[in-house]
Specification:
Length: 363
């Protein structure tokens, strides 16, 4: 009986006083402003509209890959009917992501991007899945880079819930490529200009009403001796222990484009270097992966200002375990004129000193 009385008293107390919310936090109390899932600034609109352009190409790409190749061609890459269905499902996920972003962006009578036409340069299933793991890499990282900077936290919540799905797509395409699924401890974030620079080159035409994208497009950086993720004998699988594709101390050769090139859809855009760049000859390679931006000195060719070498850096994120190399996975590399110290939350400040921008296939 005594036990019952205590339980009843506790129950009454529980109804009378809601669990306290520790001091701080935004939008977590009943009397806080109700969330509105709209963009709140040009920064928000341009960031989310860039995200929408990324979702549209993924939708096109996944559908195109499935329609372009036969079941036999997929089988030769180690991919069966269930795997093809998974790619189909991923395309449908993109329909949902595009719908979500369109809804957020449509507020205040604004016009979000519609789907465009694209160009791809793969000819085999293996090259298709490899391209998908590269494209989803910058799609995923491009959103991580701006999510915590958005003015609209409610919109960030929704975008977060779609980008975590994209992260799974990226990992699955690495598995489909016969690679280690996630050879890093942390997935890096990059700026909007950094992801737009990689995406823009694959868009051919867009409807006239598509909003102009205000982010920069950096001149393309080519890793002349980039490793190929596709290794003979390693077909699609959950994971593979493979010999690392690259290692610290490797001589890496770069070539890059001069700024001022017309690019992307309808010849609407030009490539430009960072706002602080005065001398077009870069001094550093910036290696961007995990939590780190690491610089190495460039050896620019004496006969060609658009060609250079450097040595791949070593080092780990934390010196505790030794398999968290700061250069690993599908990652990013910039050529820069300065070597400012930047951390994940202020990486976009690097934009100002970039001369060329690209991907590096470390593993
Ligand atoms: C909201 O409610 C909390 C208690 O839950 C109270 O401390 C606070 O003053 C209220 N804020 C406003 C703006 O009414
Ligand atoms: C791009 O070109 C296509 C095909 O000519 C045209 O339909 C479309 O309106 C153009 N879009 C822009 C943004 O100029
Ligand atoms: C996947 O890996 C398992 C275990 O390592 C192996 O037995 C299997 O043959 C592999 N499958 C393919 C398609 O390579
Ligand atoms: C795979 O690699 C890990 C780490 O390099 C090693 O500990 C493990 O023994 C390897 N497993 C096999 C099956 O070779
Ligand atoms: C691209 O840059 C060139 C040279 O500065 C300029 O003539 C051209 O108008 C620019 N094109 C666009 C689309 O901005
Ligand atoms: C770019 O130039 C501005 C203005 O001079 C300066 O404040 C900023 O620190 C520079 N950015 C970098 C990354 O060097
Ligand atoms: C720079 O490159 C040149 C030409 O490849 C080479 O001779 C020279 O040793 C390199 N210098 C350094 C510091 O790596
Ligand atoms: C490389 O660029 C520098 C600085 O802009 C210039 O002085 C030099 O003539 C260029 N060299 C070559 C080979 O283009
Ligand atoms: C990588 O970033 C982490 C987190 O900021 C830092 O603690 C570590 O020292 C960095 N590692 C290297 C090799 O720069
Ligand atoms: C990393 O830790 C090892 C000991 O575990 C130490 O010998 C080494 O100097 C450390 N390296 C750095 C860069 O701190
Ligand atoms: C990349 O990650 C893989 C998987 O953990 C590891 O085996 C390899 O040593 C790493 N490579 C580098 C260059 O750190
Ligand atoms: C970026 O943030 C770090 C602190 O996390 C700060 O030390 C650094 O100066 C900042 N970089 C720039 C270019 O402002």
């Amino acid at each position: 009986m005594k036990y019952f009385a205590t339980a009843l008293t506790l129950a009454a107390l529980a109804t009378a006083a809601p669990a306290p919310v520790p001091i701080g936090g935004v939008g977590v109390r009943p009397n806080d402003t109700a969330p509105v899932y709209h963009t709140m600034s040009d920064f928000d609109f341009q960031s989310l509209n860039l995200g929408l352009n990324q979702e549209w190409i993924e939708l096109d790409l996944f559908n195109y890959g499935v329609s372009r190749f036969s079941e036999e061609e997929f089988a030769a890459a180690g991919l069966g009917p269930d795997d093809i269905s998974l790619i189909n499902f991923m395309a449908n996920q993109e329909v949902g992501h595009a719908e979500l972003l369109t809804n957020i962006l449509s507020a205040y009578g604004r016009t979000p991007a519609k789907q465009c036409t694209y160009r791809y340069d793969f000819e085999t299933v293996r090259d298709f899945v490899n391209f998908c793991q590269r494209l989803t890499r910058w799609g995923e990282s491009g959103v991580y880079g701006f999510l915590p900077h958005l003015d609209s936290r409610p919109s960030a919540q929704l975008l977060l819930q779609s980008i975590t799905t994209e992260a799974r797509q990226q990992m699955i395409f690495r598995q489909f490529s016969g690679a280690h699924p996630m050879p890093v401890y942390f997935e890096t974030g990059i700026s909007q200009s950094m992801s737009w620079s990689l995406l823009s080159q694959y868009i051919v035409t867009c409807p006239a009403e598509n909003p102009k994208i205000d982010w920069q497009i950096f001149p393309a950086l080519n890793v002349v001796n980039d490793a190929n993720l596709l290794v003979d004998g390693y077909l699609a699988n959950i994971t593979h222990n493979r010999t690392s594709l690259t290692a610290p101390g490797r001589t890496v050769q770069f070539s890059w484009e001069a700024p001022g090139k017309t690019t992307s859809y309808n010849g609407t855009y030009n490539t430009t270097v960072g706002g602080n760049v005065t001398d077009l000859v870069p001094k550093y390679a910036a290696w961007i992966s995990q939590l780190n931006t690491t610089y190495t000195e460039l050896n620019v060719s004496s006969t060609n200002n658009f060609s250079a070498t450097t040595l791949q850096p070593g080092g780990t994120v934390f010196n505790v375990t030794q398999d968290d190399g700061i250069v690993n996975g599908t990652m990013f590399v910039a050529l820069t004129t300065e070597n400012p110290y930047v951390t994940p939350y202020n990486l976009s400040l690097l934009n100002d000193v970039i001369v060329a921008w690209g991907l590096y296939q470390a593993d």
